[in-house]
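Weekly sync notes, structure subgroup
Attendees: PM, AL, DS (notes)

Item 1: joint prediction request from the bench team. They want all two components modeled as one assembly rather than separately. Inputs as received:
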Amino acid sequence: MTVATIVQAVTMGLRQELTRDKSVVVLGEDVGLNGGVFRATEGLQKEFGPDRVIDTPLAELGIIGSSIGMAVNGMKPVAEIQFSGFAYAAFDQLLSHAGRIRMRSRGRYSCPMVLRTPYGGGIRALELHCESGEAIFAHVPGIKMVIPSNPYDTKGLLAAAIRDPDPVIFYEPMRIYRAVKQDIPENDYIVPIGKANVLQEGDDVTLVVWGAMVKTCQDVIEKLNNKYSVELIDLRTINPYDAETVINSVKKTGRCVIAHEAIRTCGFAAELIAAINEKALLSLEAPVVRVTSPDVPFPMARLENYYLPDVNRILKGIDKVMSF
Amino acid sequence: MTKKVLKEFKVEYLQILNEEGNCDEALMPKLSNEDIKKIYEMLVLIRVFDQKAFNMQRQGRLGTYIQFKGQEASQVGSAFALKDDDFVFPMYRNSGLLIARKHPIIQVLQYWAGDERGLRSPQNVNNFPIAIPVGTHTIHAAGAAWAAKLRGIKQVSVVYFGEGATSKGDFHEAMNFAGVFNLPIIFICENNQYAISVPRKKQTHAETIAQKAIAYGFEGIQVDGMDIFAVYKATSEAVEKARSGKGPTFIECFTYRMCDHSTSDDASRYRPKEEMEAWAKKDPIERLEKYMRKKGLLDDAYKGKVLKQLQDTVEKAVTEFEKMPMPDPKDIFKYVFAEMTPQQAEEMHEIFG
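Output from the run, pasted for the record:
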């Protein structure tokens, strides 16, 4: 066991997979000598050489598009996009190609690549450095979407993503990159894609979250001080999401709050609510409440705290669903 | 203070076989009489196919079809220089290329009838599913070439696109990656002078497409794209270069689309009749026939026999294609992921029970 932050867990996961499988390569802007702008690839180029940990030209489409070609031809590229907002430049590559290769070639070719990228706000960063686009990518068939919330899951999910036979977008919660420390095993383990994690069992209300919002919700529960018995679910995978865990919980509690950093309209909470309506409507004691960012572009640093859901807004959401 | 010339560049043009069927023997690539006949028969086969597929679309037996008449030499000439396991990334105007690359004719027909089974590459050949978006596949070819290099295999990636694609950012990023990482890749631009209705001059202010390679630090050449020998020679040299670790090549095949953009297009709206007539005189197949006749490789009997045989081949494929069972509707779920997601399983059950 070793104490690691989320960003260190990324490095450990990459090192483990680079060691384990010769077809794994890490590529992106500044990932080599510099170790990545967040140091997620620190030391890896020195350890594995410039053919395995590759500094690329400054070109997001080129990084993702060439990863697709590499994946099709026997490699397992793990591409880093410096900030998730920059991945939109290659959206066409993901939507029109990565997610369709297995289908279009009727299984002759596949695209086992991982796109790692830090996402989310709350660190007073520049414009377009704070995006939460999980629902945008979840709307692309053929691509998996994973978001860890702690170091243990980060290493285990990253290993699962790299070993997955299909393309996976791996969203890393930038705000809590170094805020959460945990004892994690140094040896090889997997956290399966598609399985949610019930972090705390409860009877009164189900709280569904993912990524950096998990920590915010743990603060919420602390502040609630046992006022309500909260069942906290870390969804961990956006696509394919674990409907069963969410539905079973809502059937038990009858109430549900979903919080996410992304904007409300067509946010992933909407999909979860649709699933709850389809499968647990008669168990509901109150309409499901969404605590999300508003339908506006991510504001700059001075106003971001008004935009992002915080402890108080989530508390208000819980009160609303409990007092219905 | 100094003002000096840092670097000067040149762009070469290659033609070996002219419109009269005369050949520059000094430039002629090494091809046996059997090779030349094989190439000729492939050119005729894909032209027969192209006309047949067009007719079938008009009869409602195929969906939208993309013709390639006029571009046979750029597709067959380059394909002839490749090995089966080289990785080819075709675009939608490359049905002829696919056939020359051992893609069964029935599968090509399947694709244009709206059946993805047609895209599955035969097992020992690497034909990537054709690109429908323009130019976005150029970067995949760079990635595949990169993988070959990292894996230490002597495989070359070859990507086909039109001059319109060179206006796209994807193309730029692919060329840049190819240059920076010295990749075993060949960019084959079939410059057919029009992107639907927009003429070549409106795509780029550059005098040639070939010269674009210069900015990325590798060689670009323009060849007469209706001259099968020039295309074959340029591609062979590029393959040799790529296989020996000497990096990428850009080949501009200067050619003409002797047909509409697609079965939904009417090229007479934007192309003058005189222009089409002038290009018709450069026809790649007629040109090769003239050459072969002079060399004693072709007479009327051989020409007639080949045409009849290849028409039969295409007709047989059409009959076989039309007898093939429809795809299994559940296939739409089967190939998205290696394993179906719970959501997909539920959706499949909803539709099919």
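Discussion: Residues 243 and 275 of chain A are 7 Å apart (CA to CA).
Action: AL to compare against the crosslinking data before next sync.
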